Amino acid sequence: MLFTVAYEMLGSAADAEDVLQETWLRWVEVDLDQVRDRRAYLVRITTRQSLNRLRALTRRKEAYVGPWLPEPVLTAPDVADDVELAESLSMALMLVLETLSPTERAVFVLREVFDVGYDEIAAAVDKSPAAVRQIAHRARRHVDARRPRTTVSASQTRAALESFRRALETGDLQGLLDVLAPDVVLVSDGGGVKQAARRPIIGADKVARFIVGGSGRATGTVTNDATLVNGNPALVLRLDGEMDGVLALRVENARITGLYYVRNPEKLTRVESETSLTLR
User: Fold this and answer.
1) Rounded distance, CA 103 to CA 125, Å?
2) Sign of CA dihedral 20, 23, 29, 32
3) Of 10, 224, 7, which is closest to residue 98 (Cα–Cα)?
4) Does the pTM exceed 0.70?
5) Rounded mean pLDDT of 25-30?
Protein backbone atom coordinates (compact mmCIF):
# COMPACT_ATOMS: atom_id res chain seq x y z
CA MET A 1 0.00 0.00 0.00
CA LEU A 2 2.75 2.47 0.93
CA PHE A 3 4.57 1.80 -2.34
CA THR A 4 1.37 2.47 -4.30
CA VAL A 5 0.72 5.70 -2.38
CA ALA A 6 4.23 6.92 -3.19
CA TYR A 7 4.13 5.71 -6.81
CA GLU A 8 0.78 7.33 -7.58
CA MET A 9 2.05 10.60 -6.14
CA LEU A 10 5.41 10.49 -7.96
CA GLY A 11 4.89 8.47 -11.15
CA SER A 12 8.27 6.85 -10.56
CA ALA A 13 8.82 3.41 -9.09
CA ALA A 14 12.47 4.20 -8.35
CA ASP A 15 11.54 7.33 -6.41
CA ALA A 16 8.72 5.48 -4.65
CA GLU A 17 11.21 2.86 -3.45
CA ASP A 18 13.50 5.64 -2.18
CA VAL A 19 10.56 7.11 -0.28
CA LEU A 20 9.89 3.73 1.34
CA GLN A 21 13.52 3.57 2.45
CA GLU A 22 13.23 7.04 3.97
CA THR A 23 9.95 6.05 5.63
CA TRP A 24 11.56 2.96 7.14
CA LEU A 25 14.49 4.95 8.53
CA ARG A 26 12.05 7.24 10.32
CA TRP A 27 9.79 4.39 11.40
CA VAL A 28 12.53 2.45 13.20
CA GLU A 29 13.20 5.48 15.43
CA VAL A 30 9.55 5.80 16.50
CA ASP A 31 8.43 4.87 19.99
CA LEU A 32 5.63 2.47 19.02
CA ASP A 33 4.01 2.77 22.44
CA GLN A 34 3.13 6.33 21.49
CA VAL A 35 1.50 5.39 18.16
CA ARG A 36 -2.25 4.65 18.29
CA ASP A 37 -2.71 3.79 14.59
CA ARG A 38 0.40 2.40 12.93
CA ARG A 39 -1.12 2.30 9.45
CA ALA A 40 -2.12 5.97 9.63
CA TYR A 41 1.28 6.93 10.99
CA LEU A 42 3.10 5.15 8.18
CA VAL A 43 0.82 6.74 5.58
CA ARG A 44 1.59 10.13 7.10
CA ILE A 45 5.36 9.60 6.90
CA THR A 46 5.14 8.26 3.34
CA THR A 47 2.94 11.13 2.19
CA ARG A 48 5.23 13.78 3.64
CA GLN A 49 8.33 12.20 2.11
CA SER A 50 6.52 11.87 -1.23
CA LEU A 51 5.47 15.53 -1.15
CA ASN A 52 9.06 16.62 -0.54
CA ARG A 53 10.29 14.52 -3.43
CA LEU A 54 7.38 15.50 -5.70
CA ARG A 55 8.28 19.18 -5.46
CA ALA A 56 11.84 18.37 -6.50
CA LEU A 57 10.62 16.16 -9.36
CA THR A 58 8.39 18.95 -10.65
CA ARG A 59 11.45 21.10 -11.24
CA ARG A 60 13.20 18.22 -13.03
CA LYS A 61 10.21 17.60 -15.30
CA GLU A 62 10.26 21.22 -16.45
CA ALA A 63 13.61 20.50 -18.14
CA TYR A 64 12.58 17.07 -19.46
CA VAL A 65 13.11 16.49 -23.19
CA GLY A 66 9.83 15.67 -24.96
CA PRO A 67 6.67 14.25 -23.36
CA TRP A 68 6.98 12.77 -19.87
CA LEU A 69 5.32 9.45 -19.03
CA PRO A 70 5.22 7.62 -15.69
CA GLU A 71 7.68 4.81 -15.12
CA PRO A 72 5.78 1.62 -16.08
CA VAL A 73 5.25 -1.02 -13.42
CA LEU A 74 4.20 -4.61 -14.07
CA THR A 75 0.95 -5.53 -12.34
CA ALA A 76 -0.60 -8.89 -11.51
CA PRO A 77 -3.91 -10.01 -13.07
CA ASP A 78 -5.73 -9.49 -9.76
CA VAL A 79 -4.83 -5.78 -9.94
CA ALA A 80 -6.40 -5.55 -13.40
CA ASP A 81 -9.52 -7.24 -12.01
CA ASP A 82 -9.84 -4.46 -9.42
CA VAL A 83 -11.32 -1.85 -11.75
CA GLU A 84 -10.85 1.15 -9.46
CA LEU A 85 -7.25 0.32 -8.56
CA ALA A 86 -6.37 -0.47 -12.18
CA GLU A 87 -7.77 2.87 -13.30
CA SER A 88 -5.90 4.75 -10.58
CA LEU A 89 -2.63 3.17 -11.80
CA SER A 90 -3.33 3.65 -15.52
CA MET A 91 -1.05 5.81 -17.63
CA ALA A 92 -4.07 7.91 -18.65
CA LEU A 93 -5.02 8.81 -15.08
CA MET A 94 -1.41 9.22 -13.96
CA LEU A 95 -1.03 11.88 -16.65
CA VAL A 96 -4.15 13.63 -15.37
CA LEU A 97 -2.69 13.58 -11.85
CA GLU A 98 0.35 15.40 -13.24
CA THR A 99 -1.88 18.45 -13.77
CA LEU A 100 -2.70 18.70 -10.04
CA SER A 101 -0.63 20.59 -7.49
CA PRO A 102 1.45 18.38 -5.16
CA THR A 103 -1.01 18.81 -2.27
CA GLU A 104 -4.04 18.20 -4.50
CA ARG A 105 -2.41 15.05 -5.83
CA ALA A 106 -1.67 13.74 -2.34
CA VAL A 107 -5.21 14.42 -1.16
CA PHE A 108 -6.75 12.85 -4.26
CA VAL A 109 -4.66 9.67 -4.02
CA LEU A 110 -5.27 9.19 -0.31
CA ARG A 111 -8.98 9.94 -0.44
CA GLU A 112 -10.13 8.59 -3.81
CA VAL A 113 -7.85 5.58 -4.16
CA PHE A 114 -7.37 4.46 -0.54
CA ASP A 115 -10.39 6.03 1.16
CA VAL A 116 -8.26 7.55 3.91
CA GLY A 117 -10.25 9.70 6.35
CA TYR A 118 -10.10 13.48 6.13
CA ASP A 119 -8.55 13.78 9.60
CA GLU A 120 -5.74 11.40 8.66
CA ILE A 121 -5.11 13.23 5.39
CA ALA A 122 -5.08 16.56 7.21
CA ALA A 123 -2.34 15.30 9.52
CA ALA A 124 -0.34 14.04 6.54
CA VAL A 125 -0.47 17.27 4.48
CA ASP A 126 -0.50 19.76 7.38
CA LYS A 127 -3.92 21.20 6.57
CA SER A 128 -7.16 21.41 8.50
CA PRO A 129 -9.81 18.74 7.82
CA ALA A 130 -12.08 21.47 6.38
CA ALA A 131 -9.34 22.60 3.99
CA VAL A 132 -8.70 18.99 2.98
CA ARG A 133 -12.38 18.52 2.12
CA GLN A 134 -12.24 21.55 -0.17
CA ILE A 135 -9.01 20.36 -1.79
CA ALA A 136 -10.47 16.88 -2.30
CA HIS A 137 -13.59 18.31 -3.94
CA ARG A 138 -11.53 20.55 -6.23
CA ALA A 139 -9.14 17.73 -7.19
CA ARG A 140 -11.98 15.27 -7.84
CA ARG A 141 -13.78 17.75 -10.07
CA HIS A 142 -10.56 18.46 -11.99
CA VAL A 143 -9.79 14.76 -12.52
CA ASP A 144 -13.38 13.78 -13.38
CA ALA A 145 -13.44 16.39 -16.15
CA ARG A 146 -10.39 14.82 -17.79
CA ARG A 147 -10.42 11.06 -17.25
CA PRO A 148 -12.26 8.54 -19.44
CA ARG A 149 -15.25 6.86 -17.85
CA THR A 150 -15.98 3.93 -20.16
CA THR A 151 -15.89 0.45 -18.63
CA VAL A 152 -14.38 -2.19 -20.92
CA SER A 153 -14.80 -5.94 -20.56
CA ALA A 154 -11.74 -8.16 -20.31
CA SER A 155 -12.73 -9.93 -23.54
CA GLN A 156 -12.87 -6.63 -25.45
CA THR A 157 -9.49 -5.65 -24.09
CA ARG A 158 -7.90 -8.98 -25.07
CA ALA A 159 -9.43 -8.79 -28.56
CA ALA A 160 -8.13 -5.25 -29.11
CA LEU A 161 -4.67 -6.20 -27.88
CA GLU A 162 -4.46 -9.27 -30.13
CA SER A 163 -5.69 -7.32 -33.17
CA PHE A 164 -3.10 -4.66 -32.48
CA ARG A 165 -0.32 -7.24 -32.08
CA ARG A 166 -1.17 -8.94 -35.37
CA ALA A 167 -1.22 -5.65 -37.24
CA LEU A 168 2.04 -4.59 -35.59
CA GLU A 169 3.83 -7.84 -36.46
CA THR A 170 2.70 -7.78 -40.10
CA GLY A 171 2.89 -4.03 -40.68
CA ASP A 172 -0.79 -4.10 -41.66
CA LEU A 173 -1.79 -0.43 -41.91
CA GLN A 174 -5.48 -1.19 -42.42
CA GLY A 175 -5.43 -3.64 -39.52
CA LEU A 176 -4.13 -0.87 -37.27
CA LEU A 177 -6.74 1.57 -38.53
CA ASP A 178 -9.46 -0.97 -37.75
CA VAL A 179 -8.46 -1.29 -34.08
CA LEU A 180 -7.53 2.34 -33.39
CA ALA A 181 -10.21 4.83 -32.36
CA PRO A 182 -10.50 7.83 -34.73
CA ASP A 183 -9.20 10.21 -32.03
CA VAL A 184 -6.50 7.89 -30.63
CA VAL A 185 -3.50 9.60 -29.02
CA LEU A 186 0.05 8.22 -28.98
CA VAL A 187 2.50 9.63 -26.44
CA SER A 188 6.14 8.48 -26.58
CA ASP A 189 8.80 9.14 -23.96
CA GLY A 190 12.45 8.84 -24.94
CA GLY A 191 13.75 11.23 -22.32
CA GLY A 192 16.16 12.74 -24.85
CA VAL A 193 18.07 9.44 -24.88
CA LYS A 194 16.00 7.34 -27.29
CA GLN A 195 14.21 8.61 -30.39
CA ALA A 196 10.59 9.54 -29.70
CA ALA A 197 7.98 11.94 -31.02
CA ARG A 198 8.44 15.34 -29.36
CA ARG A 199 4.68 15.91 -29.23
CA PRO A 200 1.66 13.62 -28.85
CA ILE A 201 0.41 12.19 -32.15
CA ILE A 202 -3.35 12.46 -32.57
CA GLY A 203 -5.65 10.64 -34.99
CA ALA A 204 -5.83 7.05 -36.23
CA ASP A 205 -4.21 7.69 -39.62
CA LYS A 206 -1.22 9.60 -38.20
CA VAL A 207 -0.71 7.12 -35.37
CA ALA A 208 -0.95 4.07 -37.67
CA ARG A 209 1.53 5.53 -40.15
CA PHE A 210 3.90 6.47 -37.34
CA ILE A 211 3.82 2.90 -36.00
CA VAL A 212 4.22 1.24 -39.40
CA GLY A 213 6.98 3.67 -40.35
CA GLY A 214 8.84 3.02 -37.10
CA SER A 215 8.59 -0.75 -37.56
CA GLY A 216 9.86 -0.43 -41.10
CA ARG A 217 12.94 1.48 -39.96
CA ALA A 218 13.89 -1.12 -37.34
CA THR A 219 17.42 -2.44 -37.97
CA GLY A 220 16.86 -5.82 -36.35
CA THR A 221 14.25 -8.35 -35.30
CA VAL A 222 11.41 -6.81 -33.31
CA THR A 223 9.44 -9.03 -30.92
CA ASN A 224 6.65 -8.24 -28.50
CA ASP A 225 5.33 -9.93 -25.38
CA ALA A 226 1.91 -9.22 -23.95
CA THR A 227 1.77 -8.24 -20.29
CA LEU A 228 -0.05 -6.01 -17.82
CA VAL A 229 1.41 -2.62 -17.00
CA ASN A 230 -0.21 -0.21 -14.58
CA GLY A 231 -3.28 -2.41 -14.49
CA ASN A 232 -3.80 -2.24 -18.26
CA PRO A 233 -2.75 -4.31 -21.30
CA ALA A 234 0.71 -3.63 -22.65
CA LEU A 235 3.47 -4.95 -24.88
CA VAL A 236 7.12 -5.29 -23.97
CA LEU A 237 8.97 -4.60 -27.22
CA ARG A 238 12.45 -5.98 -27.86
CA LEU A 239 14.92 -5.37 -30.67
CA ASP A 240 17.19 -8.36 -31.25
CA GLY A 241 16.34 -9.55 -27.75
CA GLU A 242 17.18 -6.25 -26.05
CA MET A 243 14.37 -4.25 -24.47
CA ASP A 244 13.38 -1.29 -26.63
CA GLY A 245 10.36 -0.07 -24.70
CA VAL A 246 7.04 -0.70 -23.04
CA LEU A 247 3.86 0.17 -24.92
CA ALA A 248 0.76 0.51 -22.71
CA LEU A 249 -2.73 0.57 -24.26
CA ARG A 250 -5.95 2.27 -23.27
CA VAL A 251 -9.05 0.49 -24.63
CA GLU A 252 -12.55 1.96 -24.77
CA ASN A 253 -15.56 0.62 -26.68
CA ALA A 254 -13.40 -2.19 -28.11
CA ARG A 255 -11.02 0.32 -29.76
CA ILE A 256 -7.64 1.63 -28.66
CA THR A 257 -7.91 5.26 -27.58
CA GLY A 258 -4.48 5.73 -26.02
CA LEU A 259 -0.96 4.41 -26.64
CA TYR A 260 1.82 5.23 -24.18
CA TYR A 261 5.29 4.22 -25.34
CA VAL A 262 8.08 4.46 -22.76
CA ARG A 263 11.56 4.17 -24.32
CA ASN A 264 13.63 6.12 -21.79
CA PRO A 265 16.09 3.45 -20.54
CA GLU A 266 16.07 4.90 -17.02
CA LYS A 267 12.38 4.04 -16.76
CA LEU A 268 12.71 0.48 -18.03
CA THR A 269 15.09 -0.97 -15.45
CA ARG A 270 12.36 -2.34 -13.18
CA VAL A 271 10.35 -3.96 -15.99
CA GLU A 272 13.52 -5.36 -17.56
CA SER A 273 14.64 -7.03 -14.34
CA GLU A 274 11.20 -8.48 -13.60
CA THR A 275 10.59 -9.77 -17.13
CA SER A 276 14.10 -11.24 -17.26
CA LEU A 277 13.34 -13.26 -14.13
CA THR A 278 10.10 -14.48 -15.72
CA LEU A 279 11.87 -15.56 -18.90
CA ARG A 280 14.51 -17.62 -17.06
Assistant:
1) 7
2) negative
3) 10
4) yes
5) 92
